[in-house]
Amino acid sequence: MKLATSLLCGVCGLVLTVPATATELSLRVRERGSGVAVADATAVLSSGDYAETDAQGRVRLEAGELPITVRILAPGYQPYSNTLHTGGHHDLFITRQAYDLDGLEVVEDRVAERISKVVLSSEELRHAPGSSGDPINVVHALPGVVTAHEGSGQMYMRGSSMDDNDTRINGIPVPYLYHFGGLRSTVNPMLVSDFNVFLGGFPVEYGDYLGGAIDVKLRAPRRDRLHQHYNLGTYDSSFLIEGPVFGSATDSFYIAGRRSYIDAVLSPERMTKLIEDDKDDREPDTILTVPRFYDAQLGWHRQLANGSVELMYMTAGDEMKMISNDRLETDPALAGKLGLEVGYHVVGINWQSQLADRWHQRTVVSYSEYQENIHFGTDPEGDSFYSDAKVRTVRAQPELHWQRTADSRYTVGAELQHHNYPIKLYTPELPAPDDYDHDYTDADLLAVNRTLSGYSAAPFAKYNRRFGDLTLGLGLRYTQMQLDGGFDDHGFSPRASLEYELTPATTLTASWGRYLQLARPIYLLDGIGNPGLRLTEAEHRVLGVHIDLNAQWSLQLEGYHKPMQRLVVSTDEGPPENYANRGSGSAYGGDLLIKRSGHDGRMGWLSYSYARTKRTNDLTGLRYDYEGDQPHTLNLVWTQPMSGNWERWRWGVRVQATSGRPYTPVIGREQETLDDGRTRYRPVYGDAFSKRLPDFYRVDLRIDRAFLFNTWRMNAYLDIHNVIGRANIIDYDYGARYERYDNPREVRGMSAMPFFGIEAIF
C-alpha cells in the first residue's frame, strides 16, 4: 500500500511539473489604410521573443501563457502594441508616422537647365489651397503668371497669352489644359506626379512658342497590386484604376475618367433662372444645354531592362448651349444662339532607353485630333454663324543624348509635324488680337469650306558643358513651316545659358534666346486671312540668382526683358491684306520665389512679380498696355499638418493680391440705323486699355482630413475660395444700349465659395 501511494504521488508530481504547451502565433503585419504587407517589421512579445516579418509581412512566434502583449516596430511607422488573448492567426495593422495618401513621388528635372524654371512635386501640388483639388490649377500661384480673370484658366506668362505657351503631358502636346478655360484641368489629379514650368528661356527641345513651357509629368502606373481611387467633388466625379497587367512584374496599366454632373442636378430652366439679373433691362439669356465636360486617360507602361515604353490615350470634351441676347441692341450680329462643343483625342507612345554606357535615347510619337464646333449670333437672314474646324496632327520627336564626360553632354533631335485642318466657316470677319473695338455687325461676311494642310520640321542641337563652377549651355533650333495657300517661312532660334556656382548654395544664372511662333491658322487661311504672314518673333533675356538657404528653403530671383516683333495686327484692307506683321511689343519685370519644400509635411512659397507689358501697332502708331499688364502680383501659399491628436488633419491658406487688369473705357454712345430699319447704339471708346479695374484681393482656406481603415482610406477636404467674402470688381456693365456710359454698374466676382471633395482609395 505504501509502495502504491508513493508511485501515485510521484506520477502526480511529474504531471504538475511538466511545462504548459507553447501557443503558436501566426502574425501578418499590414499597413493601415491600404492593407499592404509590411516587410522587415520587428514583432516583439512581452515574453522577450522577437522576429522580423518576411516579404508578405508574415511572422511566426511561440507564446507562453495567454494573454500576451505584442509590439510591432517598423521604420517610418508608429509603434504598435496589442494584447492577444488567443493563439492562431492575427492581422495587425500599423500606421505611418507621417501619413500621405500616396507617399512622396520623386520630382524629376526633365531638362538640366534651371533658368526661369519652377518645379513642384505631387505633394506640393495636391494639398495647395485654392486649387479645388486640382493640382494643375496651382500654376496660377507661381511668379510671372497672371490670370486673365477670376475663375479663368487663361493666363499670361511674362507678357504672353496662354496660346503662346507650349503645354505637354509626358512629352506629348495637348490641345488645351483646362475645361471651359479654367474650371478644371483635363487630367486626373491622382495621376499627376509633378510639373516643370518654364516662365521663359526654355531650351530648344520645347516647341516654337513666344511664352513659356508647361511640362506635366504623369507617373507610371503601380505594379504591386490593383489600386482603385474614387473621387466625388463639388461639380464632378472621377475614378482611377491601376495595377499590374495579369500579375506581370514589368507591365502595368491605368484607366481614369471624370464627368461633371451639374447638368444632372440643374435643368436648363433652373440654371436660366439662376443667371437672371433683376437689375438688367436686357432680354434675359436662355440656357439650352447646361455646361458639361468629361475627360479620360488610358495608359500602359512596360519596364524594360534598359528603359521603359508607355502607350497613352487621352481625351476631353466640353459642351454648352444658350440663347444670348447681351448684344441685341448694340451688335445684333452677336445676338442669338451661342453653342460651344470642343474636344480632343490624343494617342501617343513614349520610348526611352539606355543604348550604351554614355548614350541615351528618347522618342515620342503621337497623333492628336482637336475639334471645335461653335455656333453664334445671327446673320441678316436669321441664320447662325458657325465655325466647324478640326486640327489633326501627326508628330514625332526623337532625341539622342550623349554624356561624353561627367562634365559634358550633347543632345540632338528633331520635332517633326504634319497638320491637317478641315474648316467649315461662316462668320463675320474676325478681329486681330489688338482690335478691341471690332464690330461684327458691320464686318464683311466670310464663308469657307476647305482643308488646309502643312508641315513643320525643327531639328535642334544642344551642348552643356561644366567648367569648374561655370556651366555653359548652347542650343540651336531651325524651324521650317509650310501651309497650303502660300504660307512658307523658316528661321533659326539660337539659345545660350550660363550658370555660375558662386558658392555651394548660390548660383548666378543668365540666358538669351530667340523664339518663333506661327500665327493662328485662321489668319493664314487663303480667302479669309493673309498667307503671306511671317512667323512672329521674341527674344528672351534673363538674369537671375538661385540660393539654397538650407535643406528646406530656397530663393529664386530673376529679372527679364522680352522684346517682340512681327506681331499680327488688323488693317483696313480686305483679304489677303487684312492682317499684317506690323505689331511689336515688350515685356519686362522681375520674379521672386521663396519656397519651402515639403520634407516634413510643411510646405509653401511666397512669390512676388513686377511685370509690365506693352504693345504697339506700327501701322497706326498706337501704343498701349497689353491686356495682361498687371504690374504687381503677390501670392502666399502655405500648408501643413496639424499636431498632436489632430495629426490626420491638414490646413492650408493662399493669399493673393494683384493689380487690376487694364480695360478700354466707354466714354459715350452713338445711335445708328441699320439697313433693315433697326436702331442700335455703338460705343464711343476712350484710349485703348487706358483704365484699370481696382486691385484684386483673395484669401483661400483649405482643410483636409484623412480617415484610415484597415484596408482602405478616405480623404475629405473643404476648399473655401475667397473666404474673406470680398467680391472683387471684374468688369463694368454700361447697359443694354450703353446708356450708363458715364456711370457703369460694377460687375463683381464670386463671394465666398466652398468646394468639397471626398476621395476613397482601395
Stated plainly, the CATH topology of the largest domain is called: Maltoporin, Chain A
**N- and C-termini, Cα separation:** 73 Å
> What characteristic shape results from the CA principal axes?
globular
CATH homology superfamily of the largest domain: TonB-dependent receptor, beta-barrel domain
Number of helices: 5
CATH first level of the largest domain: which class? Mainly Beta
Query: Helices and strands: which structural class?
Result: mainly beta
Task: Compute the number of strand runs.
Answer: 45
- Kindly report the average pLDDT value: 89
Per CATH, the architecture of the largest domain is: Beta Barrel
Low-confidence residue ranges: 1-20, 99-107
Q: How many structural units, i.e. domains?
A: 3
The share of residues in extended strands comes to over 45%
Specify Rg, calculated over alpha carbons.
31 Å
Q: Considering DSSP H and I runs of 4 or more, what fraction of the residues is helical?
A: under 10%
Signal peptide: 1-22
Subcellular location: Cell outer membrane
GO molecular function: siderophore uptake transmembrane transporter activity
Keywords: Cell outer membrane, Membrane, Receptor, Signal, TonB box, Transmembrane, Transmembrane beta strand, Transport
What does this structure look like?
This protein is mainly β. It folds into 3 domains: 23-94, Immunoglobulin-like; 117-218, Ferric Hydroxamate Uptake Protein, Chain A, domain 1 (Beta Complex), CATH 2.170.130.10; 227-425 and 451-761, TonB-dependent receptor, beta-barrel domain (Maltoporin, Chain A). The strands form 9 sheets. It has a 22-stranded antiparallel β-barrel. A hairpin with a 6-residue loop joins strand 18 and strand 19 (251-260). The radius of gyration is 31 Å and the shape is globular. The protein starts with a helix and ends with a strand. Residues 1-20 and 99-107 have low confidence and may be disordered.
